[in-house]
């Protein structure tokens, strides 16, 4: 079994290169202008063109219009779409690229419409009023265990850190893990040691689970 590791909230080439060199499978770029880690598709494209094509480049959107998403794809070169808003199942099927749909989890009720989505993966993040990810908040991982019963690939996010990622992977056994604030020294600026440790511990947890 392999584990996808995504480092999200990338804003600069130095952090992107370090994450890839440390073993990240995917990098996330926040195209949501209210995010502290916002980056324009054009600036993301400058970074992406300097990185190995085997890396998965994920554009994160919140309730964006279809033309906005298509323009971002063209300008940036992203290879996966992550929808972090109120996007409908139908909307998620309108694109040719792989799609991850994020659900903000606060209780079992948050998972009720999960099977309505025919996306490539479901990303589970913590619900924080007025926020769309990157908060560092954690939800009850037992709900993520329940979500796996829906037989959709689960990407676990929300409050993950180098200190708890091993526990999370062993409990949930997800398709992937996604971290942003948990490996930062400031919003949009990654801490090299935290990135390296997070990826290493995520991988090692599979060997000992």
Written overview of the protein:
Helices cover 31% and strands 21% of the residues. It has an eight-stranded parallel beta barrel with strand order 1-2-3-4-5-6-7-8, surrounded by six helices. The protein has a two-stranded antiparallel ribbon with strand order 9-10. By secondary structure, it is an alpha/beta fold. The mean pLDDT is 93. The chain has one domain: TIM Barrel, CATH 3.20.20. It has seven helices and ten strands. Strand 9 (184-186) and strand 10 (189-190) form a beta hairpin. Helix 2 packs parallel to helix 3 (66-76) and helix 6 packs parallel to helix 7 (192-208). It has helices at residues 13-21, 41-48, 66-76, 89-92, 141-147, 165-172, 192-208; strands at 4-7, 26-30, 56-61, 80-83, 99-105, 121-126, 154-156, 176-179, 184-186, 189-190. It is globular, with a radius of gyration of 16 Å.
């Amino acid at each position: 079994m392999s584990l996808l590791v995504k480092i999200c909230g990338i804003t600069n080439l130095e952090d992107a290169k370090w994450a890839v060199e440390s073993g990240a499978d995917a990098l996330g770029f926040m195209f949501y202008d209210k995010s502290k880690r916002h980056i324009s598709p054009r600036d993301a494209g400058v970074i992406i063109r300097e990185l190995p094509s085997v890396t998965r480049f994920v554009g994160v959107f919140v309730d964006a219009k279809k033309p906005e998403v298509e323009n971002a794809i063209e300008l940036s070169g992203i290879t996966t779409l992550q929808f972090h808003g109120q996007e409908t199942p139908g909307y998620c099927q309108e694109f040719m690229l792989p799609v991850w749909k994020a659900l903000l989890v606060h209780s079992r009720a948050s998972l009720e419409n999960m099977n309505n989505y025919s996306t490539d993966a479901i990303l589970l993040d913590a619900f924080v009023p007025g926020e769309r990810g990157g908060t560092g908040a954690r939800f009850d991982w037992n709900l993520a265990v329940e979500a796996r019963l829906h037989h959709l690939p689960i990407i676990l996010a929300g409050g993950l850190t180098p200190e708890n990622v091993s526990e999370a992977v062993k409990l949930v056994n997800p398709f992937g893990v996604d971290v942003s604030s948990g490996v930062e020294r400031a919003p949009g600026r990654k801490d090299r040691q935290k990135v390296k440790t997070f990826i290493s511990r995520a991988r090692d947890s599979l060997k000992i689970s």
